[in-house]
Amino acid sequence: MAFQIPRGTQDILPSESSKWQYVEQIARELCRRYNYKEIRTPIFEHTELFLRGVGDTTDIVQKEMYTFTDRGGRSITLRPEGTAAVVRSFVENKMYGDPNQPVKLYYLGPMFRYERPQSGRFRQFVQFGVEAIGSNDPAIDAEVIALAMDLYRSLGLKKIKLVINSLGDISSRKAHREALIAHFKGRIHEFCEDCQVRLENNPLRILDCKKDREHELMKTAPSILDYLNEESRAYFEQVKSYLNKLGIPFEVDPRLVRGLDYYNHTAFEIMSEAEGFGAITTLCGGGRYNGLVQEIGGPETPGVGFALSIERLLAALAAEGIALPIEEGIDCYVVALGEEAKKEAVPLVYALRNEGISVEKDYQDRKVKAQFKAADRLQAKYVIIVGEDELARNVANVKNMQTGEQVEVALSELTTYMKKVCKGEY
RNA sequence: GCGGCUAUGGCGAAGUGGUUAACGCACCAGAUUGUGGCUCUGGCAUGCGUGGGUUCGAUUCCCACUAGUCGCCCCA
Fold first, then answer.
1. Are the C-beta atoms of A140 and A182 separated by less than 8 Å?
2. What stretches pass through the bilayer (predicted)?
């Protein structure tokens, strides 16, 4: 094989792309209802943006970025996630001055992470995400979560679970962090190597460890929820209360930790519970990032959002055996017989297409039988047959492929007739 | 970054250290000289991921690489 697709990337072939279009269309429609407007930022940014925005201790920055030097000597990185770039644009375009606050944005496009591919993980993948920047109302956290859940529900997914947690504000996080270090420090040598490193970098992650799950210190470890200060606790209570009002079921998991540095207060994940879905069950991750806008150089501005992968969404649909309502077939196939008819078929097809009818014809010089087989394969609703006989009499035969019924129609009436039968127009 | 498994035609899938690489689906043609979905007949891999090595000889044995796949870490 001469050339191969780069590792961890995929071609979305015609048989799949209609599903993508369908899902994307539903996502855009939801954003219209929720009044989130699309923002399109570049696929690459200055590397520095992600170091600052995502956090230079995160796995994404430490080992997963596609970084290169451009011809001008700048360090450029293919975006590994969407939020940093959206916030950059928010600040750069001074959207904090927009009279419509909060600023509600969505994006849909490819992200890049240099990782070992596996089920549900790619080096290029497509994220749909929203960001609501400029409001500290817990109702907007609930709105963002509701939008994500709406997308899954409207596509028919049933086996999904919403998990939420609160990471608290800066002072709550700090108090909890110190409590965790104090809790584990004396006996950290009893834990796995990863956990020993985590104690320094991000002690919160120890709670998430799969290997040491059964260790007695795990069960007695301080929960973040016990370290939330009054304000953080009240905020979390309100978010939960709004979710209840919206009838959105959720689970609180005090061990839910998100991978990016910028999160505080609300953190959530939506996971698939479908059997055989694979090891990676996270469909969507999001949360609040109140310090990020300032970190990127803007005024102190709160924000909340989520990102979800279309690949995983489609995988979840497949795992639940859900077929999307996608129209596959074409309206009409023109079968031409004989040299003269073949020439006449070209303008006929053109005229029908101009009327909004989807039409195909033969370009392989196939026999009649094979042309019908092609029409059948394309799931054509109707076949128009034009041959020497018909041409001589200025008519065409129109066959309904479902019923097998065939009628003769004058060429002058043909487009009108086809519009009527294909589109119900008169 | 680490580990398991895998790599044969458009797809699925057998197979052997030695002259012609099963079979199924799909596709094409004919039976049916102007009509699909059924049936029958025929056609369809100078090639067995790539590159080395062992051997008189390798698709089959060994190594490396590449890719897929599943898992670990972590994430969407």
1. no
2. none
Per-residue pLDDT reduced to its tens digit, A194-227? 777 777 777 877 877 766 767 788 878 888 899 9
Helix locations, A112-247, DSSP H: 138-154, 170-185, 193-201, 216-219, 230-245
A233 is in an annotated binding site: no
Give A270-311 pLDDT, tens digit per residue.
Answer: 999 998 788 889 999 999 999 999 999 999 999 999 999 999
**For chain A, what are the domain ranges?**
14-169+229-319, 332-423
* A83 marked as binding residue: yes
For A156-185, the pLDDT digits (tens) are: 999 999 999 999 998 888 888 888 888 888
Q: Is A366 annotated as a binding residue?
A: no
Q: How far apart are the C-alpha atoms of A49 and A82, rounded to whole Å?
A: 11
> Averaged over A391-414, what is the pLDDT?
93
User: Measuring from the CA of residue A271 to each C1', which nucleotide is nearest?
Assistant: B76
Architecture in CATH for domain A14-169+229-319: 2-Layer Sandwich (3.30)
